Amino acid sequence: MPQVSTSSTPVPPPAVEQTGAAAAGQSPEHRREHGAGASPVREGSRVVIIGGGPGGYEAALVAQQLGAHVHVVERQGMGGSAVLTDVVPSKTLIATAEWLTVTEQAGELGIGADGGPDGDPGTLRADMDTVDRRVVRLAAKQSKDIRTRLEREGVTIISGTGRIDAEISAQGSRRIFVTTTAGEELELETDIVLVATGATPRVLPSAQPDGERILTWAQMYNLTEIPEHLVVVGSGVTGAEFAGAYNALGAPVTLVSSRDRVLPGEDEHAAELIEAVFRRRGMTVLSRSRAAAVRRVDHGVEVELTDGRVVTASHCLVAVGGVPATDGIGLTEAGVEVSDSGHIKVDRVSRTRAFRVYAAGDCTGVLPLASVAAMQGRIAMWHALGDAVSPLDLDTVAANIFTAPEIATIGVTQKQIESGEIDGAITRLPITRNPRAKMLGIKEGFVKLFSDRSTGTVIGGVVVAPRASELIYPITIAVTQRLTVDQLANVFTIYPSLTGSIAEAARTLHRA
């Protein structure tokens, strides 16, 4: 899931939220207009979740735990696109490619391959058919595991699509019309609705995917051979991840970036480092270039740029973001406010403006991360079913880009500090000075830490390194728990370890 889209403006909660009998006594018209929040709903309430991705299945587990009767309606398979065509398969592919990037320093570390037959030096290579079959198999297994867990907990799963009825009963319930994958029509009566329908790849009119040569990120697992030449249109998170992975797998890659650098929304130093790594590994990066059209030709594709240049290749991945999957499910009729981009507007407890209708995940446009979708879904059920709940806090969300090296971030950005928006201190340490990094042959990366200038509280950080997704965790704890740089620095670290650089960075921010 990869593309970061513009966040929709959260909907403010109603000025006065009535609960219990008062809320139940409101007319359906009043509830639809004012979007009364969830009253503390009694145990045994009925919950219908439309969409079985991270937002949907995590919400289902919470609702079941709180004693609700839960139905999940999912057309694709449990886990949704995140598990079947997005996060799980793409990161599995990247994990395979990573095995090839870690061999870059093999010679320096004294590692070599025995010669093969006929003088073959025994160079590592990837069998694309095997790789993609494994990717698809692991995604299917993860989907099956999620389904098994939900069914074991007592959640009812229906394969199909759901649509919300516009009418609200006098008791505050709604109907959900379900068309099953077998063509059966069902009606579910529910007290609470959660929409977690996710997003689909954005398709350009001038670059229609065919699933063979012109591909979206959901179709990349159809390949049985490494592309002779892959053009990636779009240098955001998805484009950069796939470009880096296929480059490591041995494909010549051309990355078309409409901006000055790849990953334009990320930390500038991190993005510059990744682009330098891409170029060093032989990738062609076309900065300040925009694709005008992608055409299928004999045995390949032509990517026409707006400046008239044409790039000929065997395959093209169009990675230009996603669009929310919100059409045709009755949102507007049910009183749910939808932005011009199609995203569902929600507040920080995942409420929409419609009575007891919540939304979570990429369909809301808040942050297209599986972790955020899952948290939105859990928060929605905690709130709807009257449990203790803290509103979503985006300042504590850690994110990771699975390039090689990875980029992990948390909290405020350097741009916010340098602009004067936040009064913060900045430190940056190259990972190459770390003894463990030297042992592993790591030559690129850094740890960057931000602190509040007056209190010394850790307010953000960036890690660029192998397994940055793991290394960011102690910084995430520091930001979430409002630890000071001194508290972070005074925790014992293993010697030698990459986390030692985090403590060292914290020590440099100490103020006497």
From TrEMBL:
Domain Pyridine nucleotide-disulphide oxidoreductase dimerisation: 398-505
InterPro entries given in the database record: FAD/NAD-bd_sf, FAD/NAD-binding_dom, FAD/NAD-linked_Rdtase_dimer_sf, Pyr_nuc-diS_OxRdtase, Pyr_nucl-diS_OxRdtase_dimer
Iron in keyword set: no
Keywords tagged on the record: FAD, Flavoprotein, NAD, Nucleotide-binding
Pfam families with a match to the protein in the record: Pyr_redox_2, Pyr_redox_dim
Molecular-function GO terms, alphabetical: flavin adenine dinucleotide binding; NAD(P)H dehydrogenase (quinone) activity
Domain FAD/NAD(P)-binding residue range list: 46-377
Binding residues for NAD(+): 234-241, 321
Keyword Nucleotide-binding belongs to the record: yes
Region Disordered: start-end pairs: 1-44
Residues holding FAD: 91, 162, 362
Co-factor binding comment: Binds 1 FAD per subunit.
Cofactor(s) this protein requires: FAD
Homology family: Belongs to the class-I pyridine nucleotide-disulfide oxidoreductase family.
UniProt protein name: NAD(P)H-quinone dehydrogenase
